Amino acid sequence: MRTSRIDRKTAETDISLNINIDGRGESKINSGCGFLDHMLTLFAKHGRFDLELVCKGDCEVDYHHTTEDIGIALGQAFREALGNKAGIIRYGHTILPMDDALIISAIDFSGRAYLGYDVDLLTEKVGDFDTELVKEFWYGFVRTSECNLHIMEVVGENSHHIIEGIYKSVARSIKTAITIEERFKDDIPSTKGVL
Questions:
Q1: Closest CA to 137 of 163, 169, 101
Q2: In what order do the strands lie in the sheet with 91-98?
Q3: Any bridge partners for residue 3, and if so which?
Q4: Is 151 helix (H, G, I), strand (E, B) or coil?
Q5: Read out DSSP for 10-54?
Q6: Residues whose CB falls within 8 Å of the CB of residue 80, separated by 6 or more in sequence, listed in order
Q7: pTM score > 0.85 for this model?
Q8: Fewer Cβ atoms within 10 A, N terminus or C terminus of the chain?
Q9: Crossing angle for the helix pair 34-47 and 159-177, to the nearest 10 degrees
Q10: Using an 8 Å Cβ cutoff, are 49 and 25 in contact?
């Protein structure tokens, strides 16, 4: 089993995160933000990641630091759990419908951080969650997981559906990319010999 534990403490957040990337999709999430808990729960379910997360953040300010720092910690956890990435498929992509929304995501665990984010959210908030923080989350994730991730909204009207589609689509793309190809389980999927 590929697992990681991350404890990350700053002046703004205190995060404890455990992940098994070869799990069943079970989760216990307490970020201090109900909407983010919902997104991370379905992220774990659709990626089949077992995820436990507790974050104590400065939510009295807003959810910016909490959201960004959880993205950073989650990316770090994936990087550690993947080790040298021997045997992984490396690439994954998903076209995901979520009611009115259609989301495309594609990921490459290349060792290089890049986020392509083409999403037009029509509202500034979902509940008390600032929708601009979705990009901050994924930007934190790609920086520390060292992956190349593209997220594109093809169509969408409801911000909740668009964001939910993003988390589900990326989870499924990650699930594909980190799957071990048994025939090549000792092979690094790069002509460079390192990722």
A1: 163
A2: 91-98, 101-108, 148-155, 114-118
A3: 20
A4: strand
A5: -SSEEEEEEEETTS-S-EEEE-S-HHHHHHHHHHHHHHT-EEEEE
A6: 4, 6
A7: yes
A8: N
A9: 30
A10: yes
Query: Among 33, 31, 28, 63, which residue's Cα sits nearest to residue 45?
Result: 28
Under 8 Å between Cβ of 39 and 74:
no
Confidence at residue 16, expressed as pLDDT on a 0 to 100 scale: 98
Helix/strand/coil percent split, the chain, to 5: 35, 30, 35
User: How many angstroms separate the CA atoms of 195 and 189, rounded?
Assistant: 8
**CA separation for the pair 47, 31 (Å, rounded):** 19
* Phi, psi angles (nearest 5°) of residue 88: -75, 155
Of 11, 8, 22, nearest to 53 by C-alpha is 8
Average pLDDT, stretch 22-45? 98
- What pLDDT is attached to residue 132? 98
What are the tens digits of pLDDT across the range 4-24?
999 999 999 999 999 999 999
Q: 115 and 139 in contact (C-beta within 8 Å)?
A: yes
